[in-house]
Amino acid sequence: MVSLNFWDYLIIIVFFTITLSIGLYVSKKSGTDSNEFFLSGRTMPWWLLGVSMVATTFSTDTPNLVTDIVRTNGVSGNWVWWAFLLTGLLTVFVYAKLWRKSNVNTDIEFYEFRYGGAPARFLRKFRAIYLGVIFNVITMSAVTLAAIKIGGIMLGLEPWQTVVFGGVITVIFSAAGGFKGVVYTDFVLFFVAMGGAIGAAYYLVNLPEVGGVSALIANDAVAGKLSILPDFSDKQALITLFIIPLAVQWWSSWYPGAEPGGGGYIAQRMLAAKDENHAIGATFFFNIMHYALRPWPWILVALASLVVYPDLASIQEAFPNITDDKLGHDLAYSAMLTKLPSGLLGLVLASLVAAYMSTISTQLNWGSSYVVYDFYKQMINPKASEKKLVLVGRISTVVLMVFSALLALVLQNALQLFEVLLVFGAGTGLIFILRWFWWRINAWSEITAMFASGIISILLKLTPLGAFLFDAETGVFENYYEYPFVVLVTTIIWVGATFITQPESKEVLQSFYKKIQPGGPGWTKVVREAKAEGKEIVHAKEGWSVPSGIVAMLLGCVLIYSCMFATGYWIYGDYMYAGVLTGVAVVSGFLMTKMWKRIKATIL
After folding, report:
1. Consecutive 10-residue runs of the chain (604 residues): their mean pLDDT?
2. How far apart are CA 183 and CA 143, in angstroms?
3. Are 390 and 166 within 8 A, CB to CB?
4. Are 262 and 270 in contact (CB under 8 A)?
5. CA–CA gap between residue 443 and residue 76 (Å, rounded)
6. Distances from the Cα of 539 to the Cαs of 497, 519, 535, 602, in angstroms?
7. Can you tell me the distance from the alpha carbon of 186 to that of 364, in angstroms, rounded to the nearest whole number?
């Protein structure tokens, strides 16, 4: 537990005042209609949306999660989320413009635009509750759990106190300001969160007991954790931490914020962009900042924590008020922050609150948009006025916050939730990629995949086979073959369902193609049939930009990974690797800029 002085309190009070003022300032305009409340009238520029995406994914649970990963599996363990860069850049260069052209209010509304009939209506309503409420509450509870641990270690707060103090303020500006309030406050929250993370890393690495970067790297407790790539002689680590994430996980799994083909709050921001180019610019800016800029301050603190708190027993000894059910390696990040001096401590606390508020406010606005557009308006009150829709949005914002807070009080650690969510979405990601470019995908494909993935995951956990695959203590998958197993079985089931069931009607398919212009061989049959009927659904001025988009995606991956790993090697003092990777980043950046101009030209 730390003691705050006048300057710490002043920084935190000023931060809260600015945040609430922004939400209340934009509340009047945000409340005029549902389009303003959830999409800010589709007038947002790329840079503001990009910063908002980065701020949203900061989150209080992310540094805790990274700390847990580094202490458990070393720096290379981060490939479990670094691999999602491929998903992110595929969204940037292929799917961002498609989402913006769809002009839907939510990505769930896409179901009745791409598919038709009763299955599409069911899918839209079910996913609204499944994602907007259930998965959304689970995700927010992980973020709130991290806030509980930070509050307990740094301020000596009881879990319920952290939940009440943090939740009430977040709900006020989220419910009042809507999407515009969320995005505007995100702009402030990003700089506070980034400044706090960098300041904390610099100070903590230079603690006397750590001794600076050189001493940290040479420390016996740290030396074995530094490698950016996993140990290739360790078969299980190589497969679980590197091969599966890069070969299977990024395209096969649905995970909030990293959906193949875009979705969730990322799609919400693309839909709110001024136009297609702003949607692309926002998502690319987000991926650069998310992967190339942010990881190393957290990684450095995690490595330093191995020196100060080498095991769980040392954390428990230093913070005896932490209960056994909350004790985990993720606590080490908060434990390190207690060593910060006054002034910097206030900034870092404000940055952690900023990370919490940014993530929760986004999840609340995004989740309530599903409840309003895809459930309430569709099933309960189709003729609801715009004022009524805004009111329901604000009420659902409060309800979602309450549910997530209650769940957070019974959870143990963030890594556990991360792995469970990955497995629950295993095998569904390929559908989200192909549905834009293959006419044969239908509503039953998605329904089957969604239920198959969930049911298989549950059965594995409850059956004797699951007892073999799961770790008895943590309740999460321990061995390296269960994730591909879920992906394979789920994929076989939904592909079979696709061919067994009837395709979507010609009218639905032709209407979708005419508006989106996805192009490619997967739509040849639909285009040929429309032409035979005398219907012109192809816009001659638009070419198929996917091949160029994939090349740009690969170049973007080289650029961002090179930047991220060059930064690591500069920190490690390995100047040869750092120099080579910096050169690779410059060359790939130049080539990608040329490719970007070609892609941009195809969508004007």
Report:
1. 73 79 73 79 88 80 86 90 89 88 87 91 88 82 80 77 80 78 83 87 93 92 89 75 77 72 83 87 89 90 94 87 76 87 82 80 87 88 88 90 84 58 73 93 93 79 52 43 77 94 94 90 92 84 77 92 93 93 94 79 47
2. 19
3. no
4. yes
5. 38
6. 32, 10, 12, 12
7. 14
